[in-house]
């Protein structure tokens, strides 16, 4: 009997297991997670903090018998090592599980900053349901909350906390908010917006130490000492692949895969936030930790796992890694697509109206839009994504956009229609 083992019970692991079951009804499938809760979406945790949903609302599948009905075995146990030579997964308790194919879908875990006092009571990450429970117990109206980090995840957490009525301060080491997604102008505009909403933001600032107690005393690099009832560490995440050390599977930032999501070891695959997948658009292997990527990578990996186990050719291919971020920061919408910082030899145009809270930045290589940023510019979000991901050749429209970036929609309709990549272009133009 063929045995597929999946490490990770998040979105990638769940979708992979369901895909395998659909295409291989008789194969044995085992999903191994390391949290006691049913499979859930981390992206739903902010809505839990806001009170919009309860814990069941975070669950990926609502039926408690979902996996039982699909005859998918689910284990809760941390993984110790993966043994490539013997094709076994060794759990921390010493138990080993043999596999014919293996999917690494262990996601990411929060970065643990080397700050004295970071392990004090009242300091929490915001990554698990257990974290959410601890935060909700402390984030009462009027509570003083200090958050480390104003990146993409940090801004989502900030949105949730602000709805709880806390007094919120945010500390960001970078010179602007969302520094890995936004340039200086855009990041500065987001900071101005957040500040106007009553959230105190310190950029270019580090937390130097946290003194335990009630309240916590937090010393900042700007000389201030702040008191907090709750400190949230949102200093970023990294792939959770420590157990892969010395396995023989090539790992860089994440587990390195090819277009089939297969690693350097035949029969072993990776998907989701722990995978470093080849992106045909940029020509690079990238970790892009967003749920749409996890879902598509899991689907492709699962199809190839079924094929590999039967000695068939690997046919399913990843078309590309979606490099998109759309962020709602206290009501201000910002976006980042592709190579938003540009590339050597490329061209760049910006349009900024700070009074209206609008900013648009376009990056070109030859006549292709390879990346862009926007703040408060919601009408062209779909068009920007379509141009970047479709690698649409703009021809003369590129020069037009260099002079007037607001012509994105017309440029997309004309260029994409000419290349047959948007079948509804003519109908759209007639409206």
Structural features, described:
- The structure is a single chain.
- The protein is built from 11 helices and 26 strands.
- The model is unreliable at 422-431 (pLDDT under 50).
- The relative contact order is 0.11.
- The protein has 3 domains: 3-109 and 238-309, FAD/NAD(P)-binding domain (3-Layer(bba) Sandwich), CATH 3.50.50.60; 123-235, FAD/NAD(P)-binding domain, CATH 3.50.50; 331-430, Enolase-like, domain 1 (2-Layer Sandwich), CATH 3.30.390.
- The protein has 431 residues and is an alpha/beta fold.
- The chain has helices at 11-23, 45-50, 66-69, 129-138, 152-162, 184-196, 291-309, 381-390, 397-403, 408-418, 425-430; strands at 3-7, 28-33, 72-76, 79-83, 88-91, 96-98, 101-104, 108-110, 123-124, 144-148, 167-172, 200-203, 207-211, 216-220, 225-228, 230-233, 237-239, 255-256, 268-270, 275-279, 284-286, 324-329, 332-338, 347-353, 358-365, 368-375.
- It is globular, with a radius of gyration of 23 Å.
- The strands form 7 sheets. Strands 3-2-1-7-19 form a 5-stranded parallel β-sheet. It has a 5-stranded parallel β-sheet with strand order 9-16-10-11-12, covered by helices on one side.
Topology at a glance:
Elements: E1 3-7, H1 11-23, E2 28-33, H2 45-50, H3 66-69, E3 72-76, E4 79-83, E5 88-91, E6 96-98, E7 101-104, E8 108-110, E9 123-124, H4 129-138, E10 144-148, H5 152-162, E11 167-172, H6 184-196, E12 200-203, E13 207-211, E14 216-220, E15 225-228, E16 230-233, E17 237-239, E18 255-256, E19 268-270, E20 275-279, E21 284-286, H7 291-309, E22 324-329, E23 332-338, E24 347-353, E25 358-365, E26 368-375, H8 381-390, H9 397-403, H10 408-418, H11 425-430
Parallel strand pairs: 1-2, 1-7, 2-3, 7-19, 9-16, 10-11, 10-16, 11-12, 18-20
Antiparallel strand pairs: 4-5, 5-6, 8-17, 13-14, 14-15, 20-21, 22-23, 23-26, 24-25, 25-26
Helix pairs in contact: 1-7, 8-10
